[in-house]
Amino acid sequence: MDYFDRFAIPHPSPAIYASMVAIGVTVIAIIAGLTYFKKWGYLWREWLTTVDHKKIGIMYLLSALLMLFRGGVDAIMMRAQTAVPENTLLDAQHYNEVFTTHGIVMIIFMAMPFIYALMNFVVPLQIGARDVAFPRLNALSFWLFFMGAMLLNISFVIGGSPDAGWTSYFPLAGNDLSQSVGTNYYMIALQIAGLGTLISGINFVTTILKMRAPGITLFKMPIFTWSALTANAIVVFAFPVLTVALLMGTMDRLFGTNFFTTSNGGMDMLWANLFWVWGHPEVYILVLPAFGVYSEIISTFARRNLYGYKSMVLSMIIISFLSFLVWTHHFFTMGQGALTNSIFSITTMAIAIPTGIKIFNWILTLWKGKIEFTVPMLYSVGFIPIFTIGGVTGVMLGMSAADYQYHNTMFLVAHFHYTIIPGVVFAMIAGLTYWWPKMFGFMLNERIGKWAFWFIAISFNVTFFPMFFTGLDGQARRMYTYSESTGFGPLNLLSFIGATGLAIGFILLVFNIYYSVRYASRDISSDPWDARTLEWATHSPIPSYNFAITPDAKSIEAFWESKKLGKSLFKGKYNKIHMPNNSGIPFIMACIMFVWGFSFVFGMWIPLIITTIGIFALMAYQSFEIDNGHYITVDKIEEIEKDLRGA
C-alpha cells in the first residue's frame, strides 16, 4: 500500500466529509474564542496543568458526555440501517466500522471516564482526604485517556475506522482481512487509554487504603468508596492482560509476528482468551461503581441507613473474585468440550447470587422508608426491574447447551444492553444529578430531569426488548441487512422508534444542563439533599484543600449523625495544609503520546523514535525534579473559610 494512500478515507461519503468540515470549524472556533476572550492563560493554569482531583473529575465528566453522544450517533445509524429490510443507508463496510466504534466508544471512552469522573470527585471527599495519593499520576491518567480517545476518534476521517468488531477477533483483525489502518488505531488508542486506566487503578487503591481520615476503618467506608476499591482492584489485575494482548496484536500487524495468526505457530483463540480475561472483569469494573452509586442514592432518599452493609461489601468482593472465573462463557459454541463448558456455566450462574443479594438489600432499604422520588431516585428504582431482566437473561446465556441458540444473535445484544445501560448509564446519570450541586454549586432542574428519565426508561425498553424476540427467531447480530421474508422488519422498526426516543431523552439531559446553568438558583446549601456521607460536610464550592480540619469520623454515617445527634465532625484548630503544585508535564507527555500513537498507527518510524525519546526525557525530568508542593497558611485558610461561610 502506498504511504500516502494509508491516510485516505477508505469509504468516503457526504457524512464523513461533513464531519471533517465540522471538526475543522469547531477547532477554529475554539482557538478563536480562547484568543478573543484571552483565556489561554486561564485554561493552562486552571485546567491543563491542574492536579486537583475535583477538576480532573469534571474533565472526565465532560469527556464522558462528549463520547456518550459520539457513540449515540453510531447507535442511531445502526438502528436506522436495520429499521427496514434491505436498507441501503449504510453499506456493509461502513456498518462494520459503525458498530465497531460504537462498542469501543461506549465501553472504553464513555462508561470508563464516567465512573472515573465520579470516583475522582467523590472518593477523596468520602474518606476525608485532601487529594488522591499521586496527584500528578492522576492528571497523567486523565490526559492519557483523553489522548487515546482523540486518537481513536480521528480514525474515521484519517485512514478509516476499525472494522473488526469491538472485540477485534483475529484473524479478522489481521492484516489479510483488515487491510486499512483502522485496527492499528484500535490497538494503539486502547493501549494509551488503558495505560491511563491502569495508573488510575493503582492510584485509587493506594488512596483508599492509605489516605482515610482517622476513624474511617475499612468497614466504616461508604459503599461507593468500597465499590471504587473493588473495581480498581479488578483494574490492577485485568488491565495488564489487555495491555499484553494489544501489544501482541500490534506486533502481529506491524512487525509480522504470529501470535494470533492461523499459521506459523499462531493461535487465533489466544486473542479471544486474553481479550475476555480482561473483557468480562471489565463489565464489573463498570457495574460495581454503579452499585455503589445506587446504594448511596437509595439510602439518602429512603431516609434510612443501607440495609445489610456488610453483606453488600462481601457481595462486591465475591463478585470481583468471580469476575475472573467466567470469561470462557463467551465461547461456549467454539468446541472447547462439555467439561469446560460445564465448569464455566456453573461459575457464570454463581455470580448471580451475590448480585441478587444486592438487589434484595436495596429493596429492604426501601421497605418502610420515607421515599422521596427525586430524579436520582427514579433512575435508582427504575434500574432494579430492568437490570433484573438483564440478569435473568444472563443466566439463560450462562447455560452452555442453551447458548447454542442464543449465541451471536440479537438476544445477546438485548441482554448486554439490559445490564450495561441500567447498570452503568442509569447510574451515571443518577450520580451526575446527585453530586451535581456539590460539583457546581447549583441543582439540575427536577422537572426537566424527570421528563428525561421517562423518555430514557421507556424508550430503552422499546429499543431493546424486541431484540429478545428477533434474536430467538434467528436474527444474527452484526448483520447489516436482511430480507423482508425473515419477518424481522416490524420489530426492528419498533427498535428504531425506541432509539429515537432515547436520543430525545439524552437531548433533554443536555438541555437540562443548559437550562440549569442559566436559570438555576445558586442560593443552595452545601447539603441540599439532606445526605448521609462525608462529601456533603464540606462547603460548596469545595475549597482546594477539601476540609479545613481533617474530619473525625467514627461511624459509617458520621455526617448524618453529626446533623441528627449534634456530634462534631471537625475538632481542633486550623493548621497549615500541604498541597501539591500544578504541573504541565502530564499534559505535555500525553500530547507526545498522541503523536507517538499516530506515528505508530501509520508506521512512521522517525517521528516514533523522536517522540519515544521525548517521553523518556520527560520521565527522567520528572524523576529528578525537586517539587515539594506548597503550604496554605492558617491565615489564608481562615480567610477562605470565612468567605465560604458567608457565600
UniProtKB/TrEMBL annotation:
**Stretch forming the signal peptide:** none
The family database entries (CDD domains) matched by this protein are listed as: Ubiquinol_Oxidase_I
- Write out the entry's keywords from A to Z: Cell membrane, Copper, Electron transport, Heme, Hydrogen ion transport, Ion transport, Iron, Membrane, Metal-binding, Oxidoreductase, Respiratory chain, Translocase, Transmembrane, Transmembrane helix, Transport
- One of its Pfam families is COX1
**For this protein, what does the record note about how its cofactor is bound?**
Heme A3. Binds a copper B center.
Cellular component terms per the entry's GO annotation: plasma membrane; respiratory chain complex
Pathway given in the UniProt record: Energy metabolism; oxidative phosphorylation
| Cofactor (UniProt) | ferriheme a; Cu cation
Q: Which family does it belong to?
A: Belongs to the heme-copper respiratory oxidase family.
Family matches, as NCBIfam families: QoxB
Q: What is this protein called?
A: Quinol oxidase subunit 1
